[in-house]
Amino acid sequence: KIHAPWEVLTTYAEVLNIKMPIKENDIPCAVETPFNWVAWPFRLPEIVMHPEPDYFTAPFSKERQELYLIDDENTFFSPSVRNRIVFYILTRCPYGTEEGKKKFGIKRLINNGTYSAAYPLHDVSNIANDPKCENERYTLYREWARFPRFFKEQPLDLIRKYYGERIGIYFAWLGFYTEMLFFAAVVGSICFLYGAFTMNENMSSREICEPSIGGEIIMCPLCDIKCDYWRLNSTCETSEYSHLFDNVATLFFAIFMGIWVTLFLEFWKRRQARLEYEWDLVDFEEEQQQLQLRPEYEAKCTQKRKNPVTQLEPYLPLTSQALRFCISGTTVLFWISLIIASMIAVIVYRLAVYAAFASIMENTQTLQPIRGLLTPQLATSVTASFLNFVIIMILNFLYERIAIWITDMEIPRTHFEYENRLTMKMFLFQFVNYYSSCFYVAFFKGKFVGYPGSYTYMFDRWRNEECDPAGCLIELTTQLTIIMAGKQIWGNIQEAFVPWIWNWWGRRKARNNPENLYGRWEQDHDLQNFGALGLFYEYLEMVIQFGFITLFVASFPLAPLLALMNNILEIRVDSWKLTTQFRRPVAAKAHSIGIWQEILNGMAILSVVTNAFIVAFTSDMIPRLVYYYAYSTESDSPMSGYINDSLSVFRISDFLEKNRPEENPGNFSTCRYRDYRYPPDHEKQYTHTMQFWHILAAKMAFIIIMEHVVFVVKFFVAWMIPDVPAEVKAKIKREKYLTQKILHEYELYKLKQKLCEGRTDLLSVS
């Protein structure tokens, strides 16, 4: 129930250096092109997209009020500016002392229970009851927050006006990211369709499925003692489906995504530069935020020292800082170690249950019809992926609270420092949490198996997993799909249904209250609190998704399509919950997406490396190319014989007792395994052949060439595209020139006025 009068608003507008309009923008708008009609179905009405004219602005000065375009004092400051000013005052308002320490700030009063909440009010109390009430909140609900409007552009200027620049820049970034995903999704879908249309032409899967080839190849058991020998054609369906993702188009798509990431980041910088100009954020520096101390910091730090900028200010002693950082670092390392331990537990689960799945599927008649599709490898991979997803969600839930606690304990000096520290802690944890299992499948599974008679064991007990004869890429695809899709589904359920259920439950107690006794502030109080970290979680969710579609995209070309569909829903869910389910957040300024930009740049560079390694070591592309150009003996069908060439021979009598299967009903004398080793009768038996070293050299050469080519193209594209568009630079210069001219003319006018008044006084005296 706080109101800020004109005097207070003008005083703090000057303190906060808020820019206000001094003249309507006279720079002509962009000329309509003949192709603009194509975008017409996606556009919103002009009054919604641009609720007010564009102005030249200058930092507000209380002494020069007549310089600004003040038509109405009640509407001169936008709602977001007003609530930002009020909150700034409330967070720094002193209310007493305790043991020599000053007590101040609404946050502290809320924490100690004096007040239950502090928030700006929404425009109207209940959108559903006021459909004819034209206001900014209802306009946002009607044009932006409803899913039937999913194909429309976002009213970013109205979002900024109602919620402030910080929330506006998030939705601008999310919308731009979704637009760019469309192109990646189209190319990824084409690559997937190429794999589907060429499935029957894949010589490797044809040989595996051929009864005279794959049906005659006896494979070595996939686990010790309990597992039986098996025929290669039992993995026929799996090998066919693996071609959907493991084909020539995979290489093209990996290179394309490396360039797409660069284009996305560079074009976003240009889009961000336009928004900075349009939203008067050009001269807004993060230093302004860095100079504003957190009230919690001021309250907890009693010692003072001299600051050359802000003079005397509180500070935290170096010994206290060091101790707090040690505790914080140790806690983060402990939780990352916990993730690694949980991943090892999942790996042990995979190794332990594989033999059980193999035995069940071999001996259970009811599973015989689906044995070709649901192999022991796939069954283990799917169940382990679901188990891993559940562990990820549990660890996330626990760590979020720990990360906030240890960041609070560090007592960061400013809000800027607080967010950056929390961001790095949460991102580092979630990076390891979400991606560790994918890194295991992509780069470790099937790479350190050994060979029959000399297998490698984890903890000297569990035999390391082997890849499917068609490769490990299909398992990486399965892992990625389950974790990525599961996270998106769970995230949308949390964001949409949880706030709605809590609000429904909270409204039950108010149903019997008359409308006149249930005021707007009470109705808004019953909504959910967006909180200071509300946007942080939104960014974190999208950045983790960005990692899935870039770091491992070579294994799953449909990942951008899944992300696109999720983001179309995400925009409307986020807008709906902000408009209808949450209290109105306090407006805040931001001229960029902050530290998330650096995180995205780092992931873009890492994605080139991971995709190069996936194509080289996880897919079968390089071994196939080496065979095609160096080892093929049939000119008419160069890939004929590849499967036989990629499988080595092992003499069953050479099995150790701990490895030897209990039964050999077919009286087989040899079995095959996936590797390039000499046969048992060779003088170098069971050692790697020259072909193995040729393939390894080709893989390393491919990684070096692909990385260098993609990096050169990335840096060339980044160099070619300027961060700030030329017309924006021109507009910024024009605005600065006109602003200086207007201020100069104003000062000149005031000086002349004073001189005239002085002459009049002299004449009257004489």
Q: Features of this protein?
A:
766 residues, mainly alpha, two-stranded antiparallel sheet, 25 helices, Anoctamin_TM, Anoctamin, protein dimerization activity, transmembrane
Please give a structural write-up.
This protein has 766 residues and is mostly helical. Among the domains are: 166-365 and 372-512 and 530-602, no CATH class; 727-765. 58% of the residues lie in helices and 7% in strands. It contains 25 helices and 14 strands. The strands form seven sheets. It has a two-stranded antiparallel ribbon. A hairpin with a 2-residue loop joins strand 9 (450-451) and strand 10 (454-455). Helix 6 packs antiparallel against helix 20 (559-581) and helix 21 (595-618) packs antiparallel against helix 24. It is elongated and about 125 Å long. The mean pLDDT is 82. Belongs to the anoctamin family. It holds the Pfam family Anoct_dimer. One of its GO terms (molecular function) is protein dimerization activity. Keywords: Cell membrane, Glycoprotein, Membrane, Transmembrane, Transmembrane helix.
How does the SSE layout of this entry go?
Layout: H1 6-15, E1 19-24, H2 46-49, E2 55-59, H3 73-76, H4 79-91, E3 94-98, E4 101-104, H5 106-111, H6 136-143, H7 156-163, H8 165-197, H9 203-209, E5 218-219, E6 230-231, H10 236-242, H11 248-278, H12 286-291, H13 295-300, E7 304-307, E8 311-314, H14 318-363, H15 376-410, H16 415-443, E9 450-451, E10 454-455, E11 457-458, E12 462-463, H17 473-508, H18 520-525, H19 534-551, H20 559-581, H21 595-618, H22 621-631, H23 642-646, E13 647-651, E14 670-674, H24 690-720, H25 726-765
Antiparallel strand pairs: 1-2, 3-4, 5-6, 7-8, 9-10, 11-12, 13-14
